[in-house]
Amino acid sequence: MSTLSFPFRRRTFQALSLALLAAGALSAQAQEVRVMCYQDGVECDVTAELAKKFEAQNPGVKIVVDTVPYKTIVEQLPVQLAAGQGPDIARVTDLGGLSKFYMDIAPHLKDRKYFDTQFGSTAAWLSPTPGDKGIHGFMSQLTMTGPYVNKTLFEQAKVALPGPKATWDEWVAAANKVAKATQTKAAMAWDRSGHRFAGPAISNGAAIFDAKGELTLDAGYKTTVNQFVAWHKDGTMLKEVWAGSGGSTYADSIGEFINGNTVMVLSGSWQINRLQKDIGTKFDWVAVPNPCGKAACTGIPGGAAWVALKTSKSPKETAAFLNFMAAEANYADFIAKTNNIPAHAGLAKKGVNYVNAQPAARAALGVFGTGVAQLSPVAYKFQGYKYNRALMLPTVSRVTQALVGELSTDEALSKINADMQDAVKQAQK
Amino acid sequence: MRFLAFFFNLFEPLFRLSQKWLGQSRLAWLFVAPNLLVFGVFTFLPIVINVFYATSAGVALLPSERPYSGLENFQILFECRDYFDFQSCRKDVFWRAIGNTLKFSGIQVSLMVFFSLLTALVLNRNIIGRGFWRGVFFYPVLLSPVVVALIWKWLLQSQGVFNAVLVSAGQTPADWLTDRHWAFFWTIFVSIWAHMGFYTLILLAGLQAIPKDVYEAALMDKASPWRTLTRITLPLLMPNLIVVLVLAMIRAVQVFDEVFVLTGGGPGSATTFIVQFIYQTGFAEQIHLYGLAAAASLALAAGLIMLTLLQLKLTRAKDAGQKVR
Does B178 touch chain A (CB under 8 A)? Predict the structure, then answer.
């Protein structure tokens, strides 16, 4: 039996209707911009802070920062975009691969020259077609692959750190000595990534591209595959990182480094914040220049970019927020708090005051900052190549098969070549 | 009851009208239409879409952007110089995945049926704490496959519990998940551990349905326990055993979640099974080959249909044999 009288229910209904109408009107007023973000350290937290500042300056625009795992950016975002869905802005690393989904924000910008001047050197990485003049976003930071070393273990083992021009072989010898003396599980580990692998390969003379500009596996690449497999077989490399997964799944080696399971790792500048946070005072760590091969001493450049997406329902607001994030003061704030290398020309020239960086992190940023100048042109070309993953991914899956004994290194190389040709062919259809 | 009669009477004029309009034989279609609609949208339509993707090329997701490629994806999958050597196949991982799935299904299903039967026989006896032991064996079934895999990963990883025990006993730690033979062993073990309770329950129900007087008669005839098992228990349990066999086989061929979390399909492709190959090809690699993944899934469907038909034939042959006897 109901205790509510009819007039009361009618009043309740009227009040509810009014509330719903008011809520609807409010939500219609606020333009929402959704930002899909992943973070290695605190990138999304800092972005959310900046978004609050933007909202204060732009009433009526709401920025929603969705922090997602990196795997979501790599695996789910492309599917969403291909299906015509997705956020307004995303922080991506497959710069060329997703470029067909980027939105040109140039028509909404008052000062496009600012973007050309400050981010011009990396703008081509985001271009859907060569020579495209649109502005699709900007690099949130530059990154560079490179090694980190557990300095405490070197000191305990009384082994001197090899110098700045030391070769991979010299580093392997030194790290092995340290691992043996300190009973560390392994001398070395590399991130399970074709991107990371490309640095030593180019150092060993891999040209990556043939005369026609197409991907090729040359002697330099083959040498590196052989060397890498051999280092796994002789116990130099920590097996868990590459053999611990199947397919071409990404796995970082930094966790093993933080846990003291390896003397040296090949990772990249984006891990500085994590190292600072997770290692603390447990041991001393340093970033060292990329070891040399016979052709170069290079890593691979890269980075993440903030990109506007065609799926955006608020293009004007999306452009406004990206413009805000790219402004020098805000960009400097982001870079300083996240301990990253700036892609902003003016800021790179002036230098960044890394407010949160402790001495080890500051030194590492210096090493990577200097290293950018020594990157091989091949490394830049490879990073900017639209189908670079056609080589990177089979490298991971096939080399793993070789190091666990499923394939010989020759078979692995031939399979990498076949997979690479297939992937490029499919992607071009 | 009166309410139900009233409820159905409400529809009677509608049914009469439909029957008049459609005729009695066609009226049945009207009744099954809602179910057919759901089946069509969620089962039949995806199959048709899958066929479309399998016969188109490129990396685009939208059908309008995918060029027709005929049977090219199937050619890519099945192109081999020597079908007894995976290495010679263009998509060797596909063949490895098929090989792994067959090996996994064969070993896992046999062991699963054997251990489930053994456990059911033990739990059917009057042992101390029978209720507790039944609970213990059934408990893993309640866990999510991801949870099961994470628990075992924690035990088996290089610095996990098992290696800690080995090290504390002065032994060398083992590569439980990074050695391909061990990794394969553990995928089977974990899968049996996680699902055995379910099949044990089915067999236990079957054992309890066998009339006691049959055993009493056997006892009076002084039949040995082995003879009782082989001549009474197993034949009478056969319908349940067939159900267990069919269910276990279907699940084994479709294995994905536990293995994906436990080993990621590695090391190398040692624990990559067919469903994971499809997932990887279509979604996990950064160049998404939807067409190839769709073709592989159709190949899997064809395999499952053949398996089902074979099982049906065997079951019918067995039934016919029993009738003749």
Answer: yes
